[in-house]
Amino acid sequence: MSTLKQKLAGDEILVAPGIYDLISVKLADRMGFDCLYMTGFGSVASYLGLPDAGLASYTDMLNRVSAFCGASGTPIICDGDTGYGGLLNVAHTVQGYERAGAAGIQLEDQEFPKKCGHTRGRRVTAAQDMVRKLKVAAESRSSSDFLIVARTDARTSLGLDEALRRAEQYAKAGADVLFIESPESEKELEIIGRSFDLPLLVNIVEGGRTPQLTPQELQSLGFSLAIYPVAGLLAAVRALEKAYAPILARRGTRELEGKELYSFEDLCLLMGFQRVWEFDAQHAEDGGQ
Questions:
Q1: In DSSP terms, which residues pair with 152 in a beta bridge?
Q2: Pick from 195, 171, 39: which is nearest to 118 by CA?
Q3: I need a surface site. Which of 68, 126, 128, 286 has the fewest CB within 10 A?
Q4: How far apart are CA 103 and CA 189, in angstroms?
């Protein structure tokens, strides 16, 4: 079976939905994607009810990595923020994520506390600080199949040329995948796509800074992986709002059945109840019901 590293070297762009809780993991895993992306924004929001602003700890995030990877047979690239501290912390984080089953870790060059990539107020560290982190990350993993995704947030505050310079340094430091966050035009995407030989990741955030091109268009520009980190979360929040509104209005949920609601039976199957029913039938003294 091909590793994610081998798949990224192929001719066809990979697309990865953002997963943020165990239901999203199980559903995406069943659908047959080549790769999933553990969104920090969505994971922090769903797990802690907090903004993605450096408030989640390494322990919080490792908990999510372990749970998500344990529930999925699909490779998952997991958000590792800034590595949760200094160089020793970066080594500890890389080893923890790899042991937990992640296919790769995303590390970024923001100052701590970091912020979501399409929000205001992001500041980046000195490029050399990130270079040292990436060298430590590459040294700390036990397998080269564990991917190091190097993200720079320099485009928004320092411009595209600085982001390109940083990405070049990060490639030399040992990154497997380059991620220039928040390009703001198709022309910028084109420049990024033709500037590097390594696999390139593009982040598509609905309502964000980067143009909404199709995967085929992104592939033609030179990208190997397109992630859609918050599409599922945005859809789920809108669906919850639509489901709760008639309850609040004292109309109940009859108007939603068959149209807006996922089948209760299908949800039971997605969560693994079939195995529970079979176990009960096998072990019940009366032969099961």
A1: 180
A2: 39
A3: 286
A4: 25
CA 92/CA 80 separation, integer angstroms:
11
Question: Does the pLDDT of residue 67 top 70, yes or no?
Answer: yes
CA distance 155 to 285: 66
Other Cβ atoms within 10 Å of 46 Cβ, number: 18
Structural contact between residues 174 and 148, judged by C-beta atoms closer than 8 angstroms = yes
Q: How many helices (H) and strands (E) does the chain have?
A: 13, 8
Cβ neighbours for 269, distance < 8 A, ≥ 6 positions apart: none
- The model's confidence at residue 287, banded by pLDDT at 50, 70 and 90, is low
Alpha carbon distance 218, 220 (integer Å): 5
**Domains of the chain listed by start with CATH number:** 4-230 (3.20.20.60), 237-283 (no CATH)
Q: Determine the Cα–Cα distance for residues 91 and 85; give it in Å rounded to an integer.
A: 10
**pTM for this structure?**
0.93
Instruction: Name the token pair of 16.
Output: 């990865």
| Token couple for 150 | 């190097």
38, β-bridge pairs:
19, 78
% residues pLDDT > 90 (the chain): 89
